[in-house]
Amino acid sequence: MSIAEKRNRACTKLLADVHAIVDKEGIYPSALHEMKLKLVALAKRTELFPLADFAMPVAQGRNHPLLVEDNDGLGLYLTISLPGKEAAPHDHGIWCVNAALAGRERHQLFRRTDDGATPGRATVLKVGEVTVEPGHGMAMADHDIHSTMVLGKEPAIGLAVYGYALTRFPSVSWYLPQFGSVRTTASRRHAPAA
Amino acid sequence: MKTYRVTIGNTGQTIDCAGNHTVLEAAVAAGIDYPYACATGNCATCISKLESGKVTLLPRGDAALRPEQIKAGQTLACRARPRSDLSITWLARPR
Questions:
Q1: Taking CB atoms and an 8 Å limit, are A84 and B59 in contact across chains?
Q2: Up-side HSE of residue A161: CA atoms within 13 Å toward CB?
Q3: Which helix (H) or strand (E) holds A147?
Q4: How many CB atoms lie within 10 A of CB B49?
Q5: DSSP string, A97-135
Q6: What is the average pLDDT score of chain A?
Q7: Cα gap A107→A130, rounded to integer Å
Q8: pLDDT tens, per residue, chain B with 95 residues
Q9: CATH topology of domain A3-184
Q10: What angle do CA B74, A150, A101 make, to 5 degrees?
């Protein structure tokens, strides 16, 4: 069996495990934690994810679909982010879990502190921080707000499972503390499945 | 840090932008309603045509600005730091 076949088998098993967890527990912190542990275990099998099989980013960030389910199901990706790549605080509207294969990525967690009364304006407060590195991962519920930043001089390479495929994401809300603003991108929920 | 003159084609305004700030940061500080969302090179809401001048780009996601778009003169205002006086036009549809 080739590495690609072994990888596909392992990814299929992972998503089957995730479905079993959701079916049993729903989407709750305990379920997300259990999914994270499954994903961390998969990420430890680095022999399944040789870099030669995954092109590096042309710029600084690239997502490789590993297994994207039909019928609006889950999406499992291998993500590569180069040093300096960042994402401002955002709520992508759907749960996710991730785990590192290599490198280090800092996730800062935020809580919205305004009352939402003024369209386009928002304030957020940092409430936590997690560094995702090999052997570790993190889980986020549907509307958790987090930012990301690659740390150090090595690419941050990881696995991520989202409740929806990236091509079918809900609207994403971006919080910009330096502007005191919130902006949303259009939902892809009505886009054709990729 | 050297400051450059940045002309926003959509509004006709010319603003100052320091070389260590992005075009988007300078525009927002000047009160211009420049379209943006992530401001970190991921969503491409601020995709713009660099009509003239030079910029350097901060780290960004591949999907937000492809090499062929750069060749066509497009840039991301949220990732673009001026390296000369420049003129730029956002490409988002009017809101």
A1: yes
A2: 30
A3: strand A145-151
A4: 15
A5: EEEEEESEEEEEEEEE-S-S-STTB--EEEEEEEEE-TT
A6: 95
A7: 5
A8: 899 999 999 999 999 999 999 999 999 999 999 999 999 999 999 999 999 999 999 999 999 999 999 999 999 999 999 999 999 999 986 55
A9: Jelly Rolls (2.60.120)
A10: 115
Check B64 against A84: CB less than 8 A apart.
Answer: no
Is B61 within 8 Å of chain A by CB? yes
Can you name the CATH fold of B3-90?
Ubiquitin-like (UB roll) (3.10.20)
pLDDT for res A186: 86
| Contact present, A90 and A175 (Cβ < 8 Å) | yes
What token pair was written down for B25? 């940061």
Nearest residue to A50 (alpha-carbon basis) of A82, A99, A88, A4: A4
* Cα gap A111→B72, rounded to integer Å: 40
All structural domains of chain A with their residue ranges: 3-184
Q: What is the per-residue pLDDT across A101-126, written as a single tens digit (0 to 9) for each?
A: 999 999 999 999 999 999 999 999 99
Query: At A61, which amino acid appears?
Result: G
> Hey, what are B77's tokens?
């205002």
Whether residue B28 and residue A59 make contact (CB cut-off 8 A), yes or no, is no
Question: In angstroms, what separates the C-alpha of B18 from chain A's closest C-alpha?
Answer: 16
Q: Considering only CA atoms, which of A131, A134, A136 is closest in space to residue A33?
A: A136
Question: What are the boundaries of each domain within chain B?
Answer: 3-90
* Chain A contact for B94 (CB, 8 A cutoff): no
Chain A / chain B CB contacts < 8 angstroms: 66
Query: Which helix (DSSP H) or strand (DSSP E) does residue A174 occupy?
Result: strand A173-176
What tokens does B18 get?
A: 């320091």
Q: Which residue has tokens 């003239």? A: B52
Whether residue A177 has pLDDT greater than 60: yes
